[in-house]
Amino acid sequence: MHRREFLKAGVALTFAAELPTLARADVNFDPTPGTWRNFQIVTRLEIAKPAGVSQAWIPLPSVNQKDWIKSSGSQWMTNGKATPARDPHYGAEMLHVAWAASEEALVVEVTSRIATQDRAVDLTMPGKPAIDLAAADRKFNTAGTELIPVDGIVKQTSDKITAGKKIEIEKVHAIYEWIVDNTFRDAKVRGCGIGDIASMLKTGNLGGKCADLNALFVGLVRAAGIPARDVYGIRVAPSKFGFKALGTGSEVITKAQHCRAEVFLTGYGWVATDPADVRKVVLEEPPTNLAIDDPKVAAARKTLFGAWEGNWLAYNFAHDLVLPGSNGPKLAFLMYPQGETGNMRLDCLDADNFKYTIKSKELTTA
Amino acid sequence: MTFRFAPEVRGTFGLKIRRLKAVAALCRVGVVFYLAMLPLRADAAELQRWTAGAQPILSLPNTAGADVALEAARGHVVLVHFFATWCEPCREELPALNRLAARAGGSVNVLAIAVADADQRVQRFFATTPVDFPVLLDRDRAVAKAWQVATLPTTFVLDAGLRPRFVVETDYAWDSLDPKELTGTSAINAGASTSIKDASNR
Question: Residue B89 and which of A9, A24, A136, B187 are 20 to 30 A apart at CA?
Fold first, then answer.
């Protein structure tokens, strides 16, 4: 840096320090489609303490949407028996690996490649009525799941939030705003949360993480009769818009799982949303514990209704998955590698002891 | 209570010291009042009378893999406690339940049910927080759903005939409860010949 540039930077820093609100009012958070980015994700899993027959299930990128994500497939190396599997209801793909009890060093390494880009839709422009969802898909994406019921307290809450709203987008936006205003990110919640939305509403404890807050958003939207779905995935790169809370800190993304949400608005199609990340900005964006009217929060709140940044990989949309070959319970969602040894389900949130690592690298070529 | 003052204060401002002692006395009264109020605060959650009738039969594997049936506790007052290791209030409530069961001296049994928790996570938790009652695994929430458990923690108080009498759908200050309040109001603690005590979770 030249001395003159350094001095200019020094002046800018001083100015920003004196007038932080003014300086940060120009927050640029403007995801714009057009530049595809390619990533390679390597998941390495070992069963640290095998106790008999062991199995593992590694989520594979299985969302292919021509306007924002393409999976280029996965390859793997293992000393177990590996079988690709696909959930029959949601199309969620996973690699199922089984090891005999006699095996001692149980390992599998999966390399996946994807391309993704920013998403954004201009919701101020009139939609095209021809963009609609088939009746079966509408029914599927407005139905309840085990942890996302769309009746009872969820329906009552949704009705209250959307009272007086006449059109889809008004209703969805009212729910989005309600989530941002009434929930909070709870740092003490393990992993991404559970997503038991009826319990959240019944207890009035609206704290959680993405699998709680965005599931609540999806449930309330579905209860309003509007299609919505959670998208389970993992952050793969830092935010190019400078949001520390909305990107990775290094190539190791073992604990960077994040789920987002989509709503289907007639005329616009599937629209990107992420109210949980607004609350993440509130809690975690430096200097942390930002006010709800902080410019960074305001920018995230405005942008994440209709757009998101392409620094994230979508694994699947699935709920209530049965893991092939397992006698264990269904999974509420498949976002973390899963494992069992001696019929005991391993703690997927304890990556260090399970154990597994996930690394991401941006590729310069597809 | 003895106050220590810095040298520049000690012995020079007798009036101020008397005032400070008066303030300290008021503080002592305040502390006593606060402590007296604590049980009331802790008792904010209440055991609500259960009026919805019998609950389904319950049998689940414990953390060692052996099936444990609620039926084995017939003849005792039983607390059927639904929890999860990820639930913060639950983690604090489990030791209190253990102390309650110890105080009850066998007249109150506890059956803890981990809801939709990973087996390994439950084992790890109880390795560091051991309890003397059975911990069962409701891996797919089937029992929690059948018992209409909407939130964690939830505890049902069953009488000696295994009929639900009370429910509390939040954490409860079990340390403030005299076990006789349970055995006296909701159970006929007689004729018990079996026990559901299980050493596997110690």
Answer: B187
Q: Which of A283, A309, A335 is the last residue of a domain?
A: A309
Residue A10 covered by a domain: no
Angstroms from B85 CA to nearest CA on chain A: 10
- What is the percent of chain A with per-residue pLDDT over 90, rounded to a whole number? 85
pTM of the model: 0.81
The dihedrals phi and psi of A338, each to the nearest 5 degrees, come to -120, 155
Host domain of residue A86: 37-116+321-363
Range of the domain at B12: 1-42
Sheet containing A228-235, strands listed edge to edge, beginning at the edge strand earlier in sequence: A269-273, A257-265, A228-235, A312-316
* Same domain? A230 vs A100: no
Say if the Cβ atoms of A344 and B140 lie within 8 Å: no
The per-residue DSSP string of A14-48 comes to HHHHHSHHHHHTT------SS--EEEEEEEEEE-S
* Cβ contact A76:A110 at 8 Å: yes
Look up the ipTM and state it: 0.71
Cis-peptide into B95, omega within 30 deg: no
Closest Cα in chain A to B142: A329
pLDDT at B164 over 50: yes
Q: Which residue of B has its CA nearest to A344?
A: B119
Structure tokens at B114: 């981990």
- Total tally of structural domains belonging to chain A: 2
Instruction: Write the CB contacts of B105 (distance below 8 Å, at least 6 apart in sequence).
Output: B179
Record the tokens describing residue A179, joined without a space.
């989530």
A293 and A330 together in one domain: no
**Which residues on neighbouring strands pair with residue B13, listed in sequence order?**
none
Nearest to A338 by CA among A114, A90, A85: A85
Q: Nearest-5° angle of CA B12, CA B17, CA B23?
A: 160
B82 and B114 both lie in a single domain: yes
What pLDDT digit, counting tens, does each position of B95-129 carry? 999 999 999 998 999 999 999 998 989 999 999 99
- The answer to whether A326 and A37 have CB atoms below 8 angstroms apart is no
Q: Which residues of chain B does A199 touch, with a Cβ-Cβ cutoff of 8 Å? A: 150-152
Quick check: A329 and B124 CB within 8 A?
A: no
Q: What is the pLDDT of residues A138-182, one digit of tens each?
A: 999 999 999 999 999 999 999 999 999 999 999 999 999 999 999
Residues A43 and A163 grouped into a single domain: no
The CATH code of the domain that includes A236 is: 3.10.620.30
CB contact under 8 A, A328 and B139: yes
Residues in B 93-122 with any Cβ partner in A closer than 8 A: 116, 118-121
> Rounded to an integer, what distance in angstroms lies between the CA atom of residue B131 and that of residue B127?
9
Taking phi over 0 as left and psi of -120 to 50 as alpha, with beta for the rest, A331 belongs to beta
Q: Which of B95, B55, B78, B64 is nearest to B196 (CA)?
A: B78
